[in-house]
Amino acid sequence: MAVSPPLDAKQLDNQVEHKVVQDATCTFCGCVCDDIDLHVEGDKIVDAKRACVLGSSWFLNHEIEHRPSCHIDGNPAEVAQGVERAAQILAQSKYPLIYGLSDTTSESQRVAVSIADWIDGTVDTTTSVCHGPSGMAFQGVGEVTCSLGEVRNRADMVMFWGSNPAESHPRHFTKYSLMPKGMFVPNGRKDRTAVIVDVRKTKSAKAADIFVQIKPRSDFEGLWTLRALAQDIELDADQVLADTGYPLDKWQDLMDRMKRARFGVIFFGMGLTMTRGKHANSEALLALTRDMNRHTRFVCKPNRGHGNVTGADNVVAWRTGYPFGVNMSRGYPRFNPGEYTASDVLARGEADAAMIIASDPMGNFSQPAREHLKSIPYIAFDPKETPTTRHSAVAFTVATYGINVPGTVYRMDDVPIPLRPAFESPHPSDLELLTNIEKRVRELKKQQSAVKKHRPSLRPA
Amino acid sequence: MCRVIAGLGKLHLGYHGNWWATTSHLARASRKSYNQRRKSNPNTLVDKTSMSHNGRLRTHQDSPHSDLFCMVASFILIPGRTSRQGCGINEGKFNETYQQETHLLQVAPSDMEQLGLTAGDTVRLTSDFGQAEVPVIAAKRDELPAGLLFIAYGDISSRLMGGDTHGSGMPTSKGLDVELEIL
Ligand code: SF4
């Protein structure tokens, strides 16, 4: 057979396909910007127009990973072997945990919840360690909210509480909340008052008109101060200063401005939910928003971190009735944060197997949780190598959602957005793997129940 | 000769009009007092009673680490996101950007000065749940008030977190009480 001569660099370059993917969706953060123009050369994105620093690094660093698509116990393996081992681990487990799901498509999330159902497992998402407390508060107080489009077109009072979008959601200010010229705020930034409440003078604080620097761990007290002022209740200035680290006259000035606003919004972040008080802090903020509607239109919105964490809440809620921390061991869903949430299930040493999808608990969970996870067999899905994939029994290198894989994600305001991938990956997608694992798990479960049926009963006749 | 001085006390808990000014004030007083004594007789143990007059300093005379000098102060640690850490995640968690960013403790410039720290010095952080050693850097200008420490989320902050979520599913991951020990 004739062997063709090797191509030189120029010829190779001519062979590389150049294309532009318009209106691609960035899934790095909850802003889910769907106006990015990607310049693609072969299997590399060389430019991401309109993406922020995080978005650019998301697109430009996701090349094809030159690693096997599957490792079993640290050794390269066939994907089919990995699927079999994963299904065996899950089907044999007595207390399996399925966790993560915030960086994958809603189509994959749906299948992951099905698997949890077949194996009588617990399914939890990264919501439990970001806005899980807010999820609890929604159930207690409700959420007066709106879409980011409404914020863009209407909001003249924009507040951020315990959130630093300049670092975590860099296009939040320019695309949705502060800078855009909207229908009822035609002069953009000039028509809006920006307020940041935080314990640190973050980069975001520098973009604000008013910076409210409170004492650490005094969010609850600050929010209740505002709730009292919203209802014209007199407060002791010394007490307020001692409790919040911020003087009463300034709180009063802030409340006066909030009341005068035509459309106010409070975005809140993990400064609120991860600090002492947690769901009580979120509850106070939701209640304050509700109270403000006696005076003017006011809404609130958690600033969600991961690209499709909002999708995870939606999918788990429409499949089980609850947004996260759901246990199916009795054949029906039960919800109890603190009991069925991943961090607790692991730190208490309860789970005996796990499947971690698009998340890195070995990198960011508490030490007791990490130690337990390390001690049990688990399956990990990630496009890149992480501390979680390194310690897993089965590690799948997967195609990246939004870059290689199409599907649906939910923006932080619950608006579903389609993905427009740039190039194909040789690695399988989460959806493909999960679908195969589900199929095999169902077969194994059927076999198990058949064996159980034929096992002689020890009970007296 | 043991010269371990432990516990500038729960400085951040005192509130007298301005919580960070209080922290700085007490830290400055304690440090000054310690420095004076150290200058007058660097090889002699600081008298336990007199150093403890404000209940914030103590010496450990019987420590087996005879050449050890270290100072411990209480802080509140705020782990959080940074854009550099975010970029590091995309580059890969075992790459330099992520590793550097998540293994660097930001300290308020005034605290750096009062504790005699310079960028690159290593400190040990101890919480109720764990311990970690980490190099320090001064926080930018007025980003961080005295008494607070900041670190990007990652392995170090996880090591200092407890497993209990108080029925919320979320371990307390911000506002952690830590002791900072200069190594
Ligand atoms: S703001 Fe978020 S979604 Fe938008 S480009 Fe930046 S990282 Fe991507």
Describe this structure in words.
The complex is a heterodimer of chains A (461) and B (183). Chain A has helices at 9-15, 53-60, 79-92, 106-118, 132-141, 148-154, 165-168, 172-177, 219-230, 237-244, 248-260, 270-273, 279-292, 309-320, 342-347, 361-364, 367-375, 387-390, 430-454; strands at 18-24, 36-41, 44-49, 70-72, 75-76, 96-100, 122-125, 157-161, 193-198, 210-213, 263-268, 297-302, 326-327, 334-335, 353-357, 378-382, 394-397, 408-410, 416-418. With 461 residues, chain A is α/β, with parallel strands linked by helices. In chain A, helix 3 (79-92) crosses helix 19, helix 4 crosses helix 14 and helix 9 packs across helix 11. Chain A starts with 8 loop residues before the first helix and ends in a 7-residue tail after the last helix. The model of chain A is unreliable at 1-5 (pLDDT under 50). Chain B folds into two domains: 1-70, no CATH class; 73-182, Barwin-like endoglucanases. In chain B, 30% of the residues lie in helices and 26% in strands. Chain B contains six helices and eight strands; from the N terminus they run βααββααβαβββαβ. Chain B has helices at residues 19-40, 48-51, 83-91, 96-102, 109-115, 155-159; strands at residues 3-6, 58-60, 69-80, 105-107, 122-126, 131-138, 148-152, 176-182. In chain B, strands 3-7-4-6-5-8 form a six-stranded mixed beta barrel. In chain B, helix 1 (19-40) packs parallel to helix 5 and helix 3 packs antiparallel against helix 4. The model of chain B is unreliable at 1-69 (pLDDT under 50). At the A-B interface, helix 2, helix 5, helix 12, helix 15 and helix 17 of A face strand 3, helix 3 and helix 6 of B. The structure holds iron/sulfur cluster. Iron/sulfur cluster binds at residues 26, 28-29, 31-33, 51-52, 54-55, 169-171 of chain A.
